[in-house]
Amino acid sequence: CRQLSYSPLGPGSVPTPVLKQGQPLDRDTPVKAKRQGTVAGSCDQKALVELGVWLEPSTSAQLEEIENLLANDDQELIGDFSKPHLLPTVEGKDPGLKYISPGTLAAVLTGHFSNFIESSIIVDCRYPYEYKGGHVKGAVNLPLQRDVEEFLLERPIVPLGASKRVIIIFHCEFSVERGPKMDRACHESPQLHCPELYVVKGGYREFFFQFP
């Protein structure tokens, strides 16, 4: 971890960080370290705390505001950065995707979020024979990426009211490969505008186990 040193502050002066000799300028900045998963107690946070000792009260408040901005990472906003994700998420295999529990999917299906959701689309990414063997009620079977693109391009994805949302929830058998891959493809496709996407952790297998 790098260490920061600061020259004494004069009245009204702004602190300027000075990296020790030999430290690269474009690595491990506080913002980049946050996005790489910096946790409490890291050297970057200790350096910020040490900096606060030298600052006047007004400047310390600015430092606190910066720390709060770093804590509220853009990763917590939906794809168009307009609002935070609605559904509670859980930790999953791919840190770049938003995972929900089977219980949250059941809550969506039973209308617990109806005051906020205008439409929810459950995308089953499994093969057709798997889908025919049993599937989540109301789910559409779209096993190929082109199927997803054609389906989502045929229907509007923007909610009619600003207070309502359209959410898309992907899953496959275990939500380890096919479901997350389809979610990622929707994020990266220039044709689609899908701001709020989720993957069901554990996939259909775990959902059926909990809600047969």
Describe this structure in words.
By secondary structure, the chain is α/β, with parallel strands linked by helices. The protein has a domain of 125 residues: Rhodanese-like domain (Oxidized Rhodanese, domain 1), CATH 3.40.250.10. The chain is 35% helix and 13% strand. The protein has eight helices and seven strands. The strands form two sheets. Strands 3-7-6-4-5 form a five-stranded parallel beta sheet. Helix 5 links the parallel strand 4 and strand 5. Helix 4 packs across helix 8. The longest helix is centred in the N-terminal third of the chain and has 15 residues. It starts with a strand and ends with a helix.
User: What is the CA-atom radius of gyration, in angstroms?
Assistant: 22 Å
Mean pLDDT: 75
How far the N terminus sits from the C terminus, by CA atoms, comes to 50 Å
The SS-based structural class is alpha/beta
* Count of helical regions: 8
Summarize the structure.
Pfam families: Rhodanese. By secondary structure, the chain is α/β, with parallel strands linked by helices.
Write the SSE topology.
Elements: E1 4-5, E2 18-19, H1 30-35, H2 43-54, H3 57-71, E3 99-100, H4 102-109, E4 117-124, H5 128-132, E5 140-141, H6 145-154, E6 165-171, H7 178-188, E7 197-200, H8 203-210
Parallel strand pairs: 3-7, 4-5, 4-6, 6-7
Antiparallel strand pairs: 1-2
